[in-house]
UniProtKB/TrEMBL annotation:
SUPFAM superfamilies: PP2C-like (SSF81606). This is PP2C-family Ser/Thr phosphatase. Pfam families: PP2C_2 (PF13672). GO terms for molecular function: protein serine/threonine phosphatase activity. It is an enzyme of class 3 (hydrolase). SMART domains: PP2C_SIG (SM00331), PP2Cc (SM00332). Coiled coil: none annotated. Keywords: Hydrolase. Its EC number is 3.1.3.16. Residues 10-266 form the PPM-type phosphatase domain.
Amino acid sequence: MQPDTIRLATCSAFGLTDAGRTRRENQDRFLIDTASNLVAVADGMGGHAFGARASATALDCIAARLATDAMPCGHAGATFTDDPDATVHDASACAMRAAADALDHANATLHAMNLRERLAHRSMGTTLTGIWQPTGSARLISFHVGDSRLYRYRDDALTQLSRDQTLYQQALERGAIEHLPPRNVLLQALGPLPSIAPVVEAHAWLPGDRYLLCSDGLHGEVAHREIEAVLSVMTPHGIGDACRRLVALALDAGGKDNITAVIACFDDV
């Protein structure tokens, strides 16, 4: 846990994680990295020790890769219009490709560990959701694998930007109303399989935006309207208090899983 608000290029961020009321160990991890302007949350799985190792390893891999890609494609304004065979035409696309490559690297690292240590029957893995602002970029890159979530509070409304990659969400989208699968059955995670299909997007951030990254221990226990209410009264100097309030709400609701909340508040000016 990082006890202080961390200053990044154009925002301030704070994170808090808690084992909850029923789990012995905390397999959630979060990262606020000043070297790469990266904020991310990972929810590990695989039983005692394996889940925590998976989430920590994935975050380390992502941070290391994105720190070396702080300005993708060599320059924030690169267009490559002189190359008729180029598939990358702007800096946002370059940054999205760099984020996807970092996720592929993290997945390959975890999958190799599973194979090397013969964890086929108890493969470790992790969700991973993050936001990254490359140096000199006017856009924010989000990336997502699994069911940890990304929200944005803007114009007095909370919007969920990520989509849960779960059987439950898939069933809802197909119109199922009965015999729904458990909420926590993942369709994707880093580690168990040799390849992944992450969701990577570019967003135009605005002054005053508040981004919340959280594990399912929070969003599975606390209603959307309650999360929105906490972010609506948060001040730029009260990011830590808002995180503590969100974790407290999840604990009060039962705390059946590990709980992690990270908030990034973008500058008003």
